[in-house]
Design brief:
2 copies of one chain form a homodimer. With 213 residues, chain A is an alpha/beta fold. In chain A, 43% of the residues lie in helices and 19% in strands.
Chain lengths: 213, 213
DNA sequence: AGGTGTGAATTAATTCACAGCA
DNA sequence: TGCTGTGAATTAATTCACACCT
């Protein structure tokens, strides 16, 4: 029924299941089988059932899963049943793009925008104003910021992460192409498109050489 | 000596090793042990040695690895010993940010920028001009485009991937928060920051509840 | 009959221990 | 002596088969 130890790949797949369920829900579909959900998420039906079974029993035998119910359950499991408070550090092009990204709205509140460049301080972005990095510690406390989004250059990433950790955030979403360290209890997820692109060149190269599939 | 079957996690780590080696090389370091390289890449020394051993023997027992040599070897393994030709489809904010991203220069040539919005056609970006999507098939052929970068909204992603595949690209770097399908022989890597952010909320939530580490 | 939930079997990835070479 | 390279052991993840419920 509950959690012995969840494979982290399972968590990644839960996000896909949730997206598939949101699509289905929007189309008015009320029930899915593991087979259908698997199809929509691009995995196998075994995988779907096993993944869900780590967290509980959400389906009905002989019937399938109720879409709105499973959607709600997955949201809760993934911690999306509340609004997280985020700050972005590094208001270059990427930081600004994120500040204006429409997909944030519902589940995330962008409540801080920081940069070290004096020329940027005071500029308006998304729903706020760019502040100096020195204002971070107080902002994290007074605005209850839980997650820091790091969009600074590679060289500055670890230093910014340190400051965020010091200020008291619980998690970090790192966009810099760097391996950053955090103490236990502070989680990091990295989004690294250059690494993705390089994996791609590797696989394409292998395939071209035809040495193995 | 050579490849029985490479764990895909190994390929991901090779990218980190290469970055660490580039840092070390820049600092003028000429030799590293697996211990030092592991430290720099944030993994264990066992891992480094095992990962490298899938591809060959690059070190000297009792001494370590020669930095410039290993760097070159990893570049070759990862397919970075040549310049790849890319096109970006979807010239919204993210597409434009990528078009101007300085990190592309050396190993990637951006040779096409496409959008479906007539208002965008003809605008200048990065090193080129935005063209209509209808011009894609010919461009892929005449400019030998190998990789398509997809920066369109979620709903349009699969359709654009289909067109890129049809046009003849070998790999796709997908930024849309969607699971996209390709036929065998065409590789996809997805870069999905919303998925990353959701994994983060999951882990932080678990930690807060304190049920398991 | 139909489809979930899960223990067992299989396969994959990581960790370890140490032989082997400079 | 020191550090790599790798088979063997361990641990983790995936796949499967089927008992079980509606």
């Amino acid at each position: 029924m509950a959690n012995p130890r969840i494979p982290s790949a399972t968590v990644t797949r839960l996000v896909r299941y949730l997206r598939a369920l949101e699509d289905l829900d929007q189309k008015g579909v009320e029930r899915v089988s593991s087979e259908q959900l698997a199809e929509a998420a691009g995995v196998t039906a075994f995988q779907v059932r096993k993944d869900l079974s780590y967290f509980g029993s959400y389906g009905t035998r002989g019937v399938g899963y109720a879409v709105p119910f499973l959607k709600r359950e997955l949201r809760q499991i993934l911690g999306l049943d509340r609004r997280w408070r985020l700050a972005i550090v590094g208001m270059g092009r990427l930081g600004q793009a994120l500040a204006d990204y429409p997909g944030f709205g519902e589940r995330f509140a962008l409540v801080g925008f920081f940069d070290i460049d004096p020329a940027k301080i005071g500029q308006k972005v998304g729903g706020g104003v760019i502040e100096p990095l020195a204002a971070l510690p107080q902002a994290v406390r007074t605005r209850a910021i839980e997650i820091g989004v790091v969009t600074v250059p590679r060289e500055a990433a670890q230093e910014v992460v340190n400051r965020l950790v010091q200020a008291g955030v619980r998690g970090i979403l790192n966009f810099a192409p760097a391996v950053v360290e955090t103490p236990p209890g502070v989680w990091v997820e990295s989004v690294d498109f250059l690494a993705g692109l390089t994996r791609l060149t590797y696989f394409v190269t292998q395939e071209v050489e035809g040495e193995w599939i």
